[in-house]
Every structure is written in C-alpha cells, then in structure tokens.
Design brief:
By secondary structure, this protein is an all-alpha fold. It is built from 4 helices and no strands.
Length: 79
C-alpha cells in the first residue's frame, strides 16, 4: 500500500493524501510551508529517537532532495 504510493504519489488514495497533509501540518510548527531540521527533530524524537539520529536522517533526506532537484532541473533545462 505505501510502496504503491511511493512509486506513484500522483495516484494516492484520499486517506493517504489526508494523512500526508496531516503529518506535514503536524511537523510544520511554524506554519511557513516547509519543515526544517528543528521541526523534524521535535516530532521524530517524540517517537523515542535520539535528536542526533533525527538530524542525521533529515540531512540525508535533504541531500537526496537537493540532488534530485538538480538532476530534474538539468533534465528540463532549468539550470
């Protein structure tokens, strides 16, 4: 179910879209439309993870996002 969503997020089921929006709103404590490392760490550490682990995970995801964005921009001639 989640693998299907990850492979094709444009075809999310309604409840998956609502859950994603809920989780985003929960983590975006500043309500600025983005989730920073401190917001991510606050939420994830509530689940028992060490803050240092949360920050490491956030930074890894941010690095992948930046890399993917650059590759996409090059592919479509945006850079």
């Amino acid at each position: 179910m989640w693998d299907d969503y990850a492979q094709n997020p444009e075809k999310a089921l309604e409840w998956q879209q609502r859950y994603m929006n809920f989780m985003f709103d929960l983590e975006d404590a500043s309500n600025d439309g983005s989730i920073d490392v401190d917001e991510f760490t606050t939420v994830c550490s509530c689940y028992g993870l060490q803050p240092s682990e949360c920050k490491t995970a956030f930074n890894k995801m941010a690095k992948v996002l930046i890399t993917n964005r650059r590759m996409c921009n090059r592919k479509f001639g945006i850079i």
